[in-house]
């Protein structure tokens, strides 16, 4: 038996069709037909004011930091339990990152610990919807509004997820998505910057096009284009967008398949996990997740290590996830805040089971079976 952790999904026929069509248009650089189709998809299906495709979620986060004019001395609050890009994007602008703990029940930022970290220098709160499960956006937006601080949603894992019926990525000033091959919809490497405040749109187009007003030029709004601002190359090829589009048009089917696998795990494992005090990460009545990943929280790191080995011996690849950024090699000596016990707990104890599109029922049953036999042996 050999069950990989992730298998990137591509509908080869559809992808080939769109990529061939893209090439036949004679325009394969950015901002072509498929770029616009992908952006429109986000705007019309998720209610985003303006969506701009980027080469990664990392780039969308970097663009957010530039658009918010983040500079040295500014403080940005975010969870420690996240991917490095959440933090790096703001570090690159010279900001001071202020790490906040996770909830005890899930790795999302603990909204009750944000306000004590706010100072007169706080410019942004970056929230991460871990596993596509929503953060408490009511509370977070109310703190942000009270102190006039911007909110950026790192929604890398959260395509199609909702909070109280509204799509994630549409609450903050910016929402950023990833189409890395590990995410629900992917094009290998790719991202989307969702802008929910009209006033940032024009500058975002410039920053994405190396600091030039080329987008306005192609729309005939200016008669020549040139260097007008800072920027970088954040616009992917239209071929990448064509591949992404082949997944967006099938997103309902992709989500159905993930939901089926996720629920199969859940109902297969719930009783055993409950009895032994092992937590399954899930959503609740305010958060409607996108089944991005299936994770268990083991009682301690030793049990997790033993579980990973046990599953590997049966040919099943499971993995842990983020390691607290405040304890990372890069940041540890720059960190002067409190202990972040929940962040560390998830770093040590969380484990993810394989989850990808179109998993077979027999693979799912085999994984459930082995997971139960491990837990019962504890
Ligand atoms: C995947 C991920 C990213 C990075 O996405 P890229 O598209 O690879 O840059 C950022 N933040 C979180 C929370 C992620 O899961």
Report on this structure.
The protein has 378 residues and is an alpha/beta fold. The protein is 38% helix and 14% strand. The protein has 12 helices and 13 strands. A 7-stranded mixed β-sheet has the order 1-9-8-5-4-2-3, sandwiched between helices. It has a 3-stranded antiparallel β-sheet with strand order 7-6-11, with no helix packed on it. The chain has a 3-stranded antiparallel β-sheet with strand order 10-12-13. α4 links the parallel β2 (75-79) and β3. The protein is globular and about 70 Å long. The mean pLDDT is 97. The structure holds pyridoxal-5'-phosphate.
Task: Give a concise summary.
This protein is of the alpha/beta class. The chain has helices at 12-24, 33-46, 57-67, 84-91, 137-147, 201-208, 214-218, 238-248, 251-276, 301-313, 341-349, 361-376, and strands at residues 50-54, 75-79, 96-100, 122-128, 150-154, 162-163, 166-167, 174-178, 191-195, 279-280, 287-288, 294-297, 350-353.
Please trace the helix and strand order, writing H or E for each element. HHEHEHEEHEEEEEHHHHEEEHHEH
Round the mean pLDDT to the nearest integer and report it: 97
Biggest beta sheet attributes: 7 strands, mixed
Number of strands: 13
Which ligands, by name, code or SMILES, are bound? pyridoxal-5'-phosphate
User: Helix proportion of residues, in percent?
Assistant: 25-40%
Radius of gyration: 21 Å
The percent range for strand residues is 5-15%
Shape: globular
Oligomer: single chain
Q: Strand pairing plus helix content: what structural class? A: alpha/beta
Spatial strand sequence of the major β-sheet: 1-9-8-5-4-2-3
- How far apart the termini lie comes to 24 Å
Total helical segments: 12
The poorly predicted ranges are: none
